[in-house]
Amino acid sequence: MEFRFFLSVILLTASLSAFSQQKKSEPATDKGLIKVSVMYPFSEGKTFNVDYYETKHMPMVAGILGSNLVKYTIEKGVASGIPNQPLPFMAVGTFYIKSLSEYQSAITPKRDEIRADFANYTNVIPVILVSEVVR
Amino acid sequence: MEFRFFLSVILLTASLSAFSQQKKSEPATDKGLIKVSVMYPFSEGKTFNVDYYETKHMPMVAGILGSNLVKYTIEKGVASGIPNQPLPFMAVGTFYIKSLSEYQSAITPKRDEIRADFANYTNVIPVILVSEVVR
Lengths: 135, 135
Fold this sequence. Notes:
Two copies of one chain form a homodimer. Helix content of chain A is 41%, strand content 27%. By secondary structure, the first copy, chain A, is of the alpha+beta class. Chain A has one domain (34-132): Alpha-Beta Plaits. Chain A is extended, with a radius of gyration of 21 Å. Strand 4 (127-133) of chain A pairs antiparallel with strand 2 (69-80) of chain B, so a sheet runs across the interface.
């Protein structure tokens, strides 16, 4: 019976430890990270293939970025938030990175390869914003 | 001794249950959420006070959105990601919400109050993108 009790205490400790590690590995904020937001403007006649972007293009770029990339997100434009205004962007892909200089070193030699893939999913040139996560 | 054993099992179950709830409340992805991105364009002579925005404006809007708001983020524009292009946006504030219709119902009666606060931190009119998180 003593043995069962101690076994339970050990299991309890292990599970509480897993619980606290879970909290550490998924911080509530991305504060301090650099975001590279690739924004595809909407206008009449412009197209964007979200499936290709999600399954081919973004994984390709993510592979180029390597361990500097913390995560990436994809969003699909739905509407302008201002009544009677056109949709500003059809889609946005965002890379959350640790270092901007490492990003530039990784991307520069691959820029032509990345741009050559644009034609496979869109006929628009993106706007790119580099920003710092404040909160 | 039996009592201690059962107490340990109960504690273990409770802690495992907390662990699984933790995973649920902090998902690795925001997939399916709606994003409202309020983007402040950069141009010569335009200003933006990030401190006021972070400490006053965003908490005020967050209060209006209530429980429909999952989280909000603030980012500060650093550069254009395209060489020799101007910075596209000085700052972006983003609300991650569950329901767009609830968002509109909450914001509409408060729109004038929110806009009146703009002059306290910027002299530019934002562009607003409503999008759906695909990944």
